[in-house]
Amino acid sequence: MSGQYTESIAKSPKIAPVHKIAVVKTVPKVETNKFTAVSFTGQENKYNKDIYPKGLTEDMKDILKDTKSDNRHTVILNKTFTPDASTVLYDSIFWGPQIEDAMPQGYGEGSAKIWEQYINDAEVVKMEAGCGRMQNRLVTFKDGLQACVRYRQNTDQIQGEIFSFYVGRLLNLTNLAPSVVRIVDLKDKLWKNVANDIAAAQWGSNRAVVLTQYIPSLESASIPDIFRPTTRHLNKYDILKMSLKENDTESKHILIDKLRFKDIKSKSEMKNFTYINVKLNKKTIDKFLELAQWSDLIIFDYLTANLDRIVNNLFNYQWNVNIMDGPAHNLAKKMDSGLLIFLDNESGLLHGYRLLKKYNVYHSLMLDNLCVFRKRTIDSLQKLFTSKSVGSLLSDMFHKKNSIVIRDILPSLPEKNAKILIERIGSKPGLNKQLTNTTVLN
């Protein structure tokens, strides 16, 4: 078995290696003739009753033994497993290196800083309709790069967009395109070339807008089957089932494990596997890469209470049962890498929080059934959960990234909203369990 683990047990008999669990067993004494005895009852004094050819493997002998009354099989629980390149899942809940190492790069903190610096010196030379709502605009800069500009009459939608982006940065998510806030000012070199276009768009001066890096080659993203109403859960058993199904790994060893589990006194021993090591094919890796990003999306949308993505699909399902089969709202996928892009986050943190009484059941629905996470996301959440400082972190980020001119026009996130965010980080029992335990074994 690939992967590394250390184990300590009280007994000293010979240990036979098996897959998924380790067992202490007593090996029957081998006769000197060409036959050897195997007991169906597991009793020493019955060994001379059941004779099988000497060539029978130890695994098959062990399968044939009746262990229901045999207490010699001791499951080793105090083991420490070290994930390696073939690990799909570990600690029962975390995506393993085989998935994490294949994740698309996305847009991290470095990308965000580069975009900020770029906008500081940029000049818009063209504005055209696009990027969603009527007053939004697709702008083109001098060098040909483009951005989507979000313009809203309500300030809280601009706050929701940019502070949701900041929350994504605190969680180390790489699925949100780099975004910055700027003020519409015709004296600013950013806008001076497009005064007529701004007037045609009916933009008011001294209004805050969000400029988000335009990402080409996007396609719609569908809701994975496992998150649709007939299933709607993701746990380690789902990962194991998909790993075996897609990779045709029903090998002799796995068959032996299955037969062995039938004879183990407590079937809970089978449920207590904590890791999966199997070499996946590309099709399965791609599926798991998408599911890993969905685990981040579910957490992100729950924390920010985004109304305009999966909650939109879930809410409308009561009138249109086919809506879950269509594209997910405000979610796209890069054609070249499979990176999911979380679009349109303006309802997060403010508008979404005001409507929690009506929509929180839909926010909770997905998270309550999610049991597989990215370790880096949980680590980031754990820091926020422990420090209770997410409000001050967001405020500091807002002040460092934006000039006093911007801050005079666009308020920071209200303190009451920061408190709601803190409450949501620690409010779900399933998620809270992961944040209060460094290693979870079920």
TrEMBL record:
It comes from the Eukaryota. GO terms for biological process: cell-cell signaling. One of its GO terms (cellular component) is extracellular space. InterPro entries: FJX1/FJ. This is Protein four-jointed.
